Task: structure prediction
Amino acid sequence: MSPLLTSVLWTLIKVAFALFAVGLNIAGLLGWVERKQSAVLQDRIGANRADILGFRILGLFHPIADAVKMLTKEDFVPTGVNRLFHTMAPCFSLGFAFLGLAAIPYGGVVHVAGKAWSLVPIESPVGLLFVLAMLGLGLHGVMMAGWASNSNYALLGGLRGAAQMISYEICMGAILAAPAFLYGTLDLETMVEKQGGFLWGMIPNWGCFTQPLAFILFLVAGTALSKRTPFDLPEGEAEIVGYHVEYSGMKFGMFLMTDFIETIVVSGLAVAIFLGGWQIPGMALDGLSGAVLMLASFITKLLAVLFVLMQIRWTLPRFRFDQLLSLGWKNILPLALANFLVTIWGIYLWR
Amino acid sequence: MAMTVREVSRPARSFMEQIFLWEVCVGLMVTFRHFFVNLARHALRALGLKVEPGAVTIQYPEDPAVLGKRARTRHRLLKRADGSPRCTSCLLCETICPAKCIHITPEESPDPRIEKRAKTFDIDIGLCIFCGYCVEACPVDAIHMDANKVELSSYTREDMIWTMPELMDDVPKLPRALRPAPGIGPTVPFVSGSH
Result:
């Protein structure tokens, strides 16, 4: 097999892993986690009725039932909508979220059978920018849905979504500038590699210890960027109607899924930049067992971050829109810029 | 009169409240505690240990409905020591009933000490509003609302009418179509009401 064909095949396998094993799997499970976690923390039982042959397994069949319901529902398109854009909007949202998922470093470089195999699906020296760009492009789905629906409520929801996501994208850039300068690269895999070893011989040299402020700000901005509670103003199911009022069936399901996938992307970024990615402190990972450990370590950290984000989602009430924007522009952005200045100053002094 | 102005002092937000982060952590501590405590309780109960339940949910059709001690539920007609109904057919309950769901046919009592007794005593549960006036009006303590049965639905309006033996729990309440023919079934004869 020619080296080119091998590398193309290997990339395809990795991307497929990212989309199906990580993306669709965890996104489907997140629907279950969302129900069950909220139920347990609110002293309830949660969805437990879907069963196959009498087996319920803690309500794990509910995501399947949901998917079947979404797929078999009538795909209702109201009169007056721009059919092309109305159909394209959920595809844009979900597609770009998926693409962002493909550049997350699930593992580093391992040597198997005398060759170096990288476990990053899309190896790129500007992986961080790629993920941020995909998160940003997802915004077009929201705007398109709001505009093409030919409904005032959807348009207002789309406007809110656009304002929120653009604000927090700028914040995100300002926040991630500091770790990018600290690691001296935009390549996510190199960033993870630089987080090996220990600080002062005891705590792991992870981004959350070297850049604690950036880590907290990133979690806030990431939640806002993925449109999750407490920042779910573009949707606001209960009281303010969102950009997807005019959607039904699987198109609506795709918007729901976008939220989950974007949360996974943001959590993946948080793990890669701030939580040491696939690193296990004090262990040098290589070979086949190293690859497995890398994946296990990364997925474990990813699930832990998702758990915390889900807990935040069920703890905090929704922000008001002016509070949301003032939090982004007046608090997070200055703090992120100050953090950036202190970081480059520190790098200059200690280098 | 001049309008009075009242100054309402609003508490100034402290620095910790303004940065919001600490308050978020306090909230998260509450939800995390609930989550892990409930999770542990669910797990221990699944292992068969007797601990407090992890959820306050009552899964009603499978678990019995939990009623308050003084809940007003379906009516119950009380009996004397000899098994005859206490009711003396004074019609006070029928009179006071705001929903007009009680229908009594009086008849002379064979007992010389008692003037009247009920020939039929029907309550249309479909009309009853569970106000409890009948219980309060009864001078001989013949009717209570403590059968503790809340599953009172039926497929026809006729089946919502409860007759005297059914209210005394002498015979089970069955849909009309399933009742045995008069004479071969229960010892207490069915007497249809005045409807």
Observations:
- The first helix of chain A runs from residue 3 to 41.
